[in-house]
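User: I'm curious whether this sequence folds into something compact or stays loose and floppy. Could you predict its structure so I can see for myself?
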Amino acid sequence: MIKKCLFPAAGYGTRFLPATKAIPKEMLPVLTKPLLQYGVEEAIDAGLTTMAIVTGRGKRAIEDHFDISYELEHQIQGTDKEHYLKEIRAVIDKCTFSYTRQIEMKGLGHAILTGETLIGNEPFAVILADDLCDNHEGHGVLLQMVKLYEKYKCSIVAVEEIPMQDSKKYGVIAGEFIEDDVVRVSHMVEKPAPEDAPSNLAIIGRYILTPDIFEILQNTAPGKGGEIQITDALLAQAKQGKVIGYKFKGKRFDCGSVDGFVSATNYFYAKSEIEN
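Assistant: Here's the prediction. I'll summarize afterward.
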């Protein structure tokens, strides 16, 4: 039922300057693979075949990565280096990519609204490549959420427990558990102070959204930081009982921070050593 995944990828990546002055933060590699490719592969594993990417100025490397490089292919064809392109070739063969630009950086809600032209009137997933997720014991996070959508047919946000002092970094939900790891959301707040946080359940960069979110976003006033917040739009849906939070199975790394990026690199290196 869900075939499209939206990737907001127009941000500047200022926490990784000067590396991101000329390189999109989504193209920073964890081992030999860029962050965005991990997200695309997670979407493919969940059965999604159309990747809709919201980019901005200086992001051409993203389009080039998910395309054939004929000169490079010719240079390494028939050599012992040809296998290095096997994974990205498989990605390109399995799905299609479309792009649009976010002209002004007005928040995640605005980035998602910018992607409406690529999504149309159907439910869709959203992956923030900064949040690198892995579940080596079972289904990927997005596949878990797709299966949950088949049951509830409403917007879903992935959540995890955080230390209360970190609440000002996240959207935070409150609600009632309706089954193990599933919360019917009644309230959510964008980046609250710890004393104002309604719970310790924070939204991370995995969403499934119903198409009415676009009309809600069009009518959502700028909120925290003067930006259009997806949290504010989701709250409008939550007031109608149409949002659930899901405590996903697996690990998540905040690769928008240096600490998280290093942790992810160490984790995936150790994982590769075991697999090899």
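Summary: The first strand starts at residue 4 and ends at 8. The first helix runs from residue 35 to 45.
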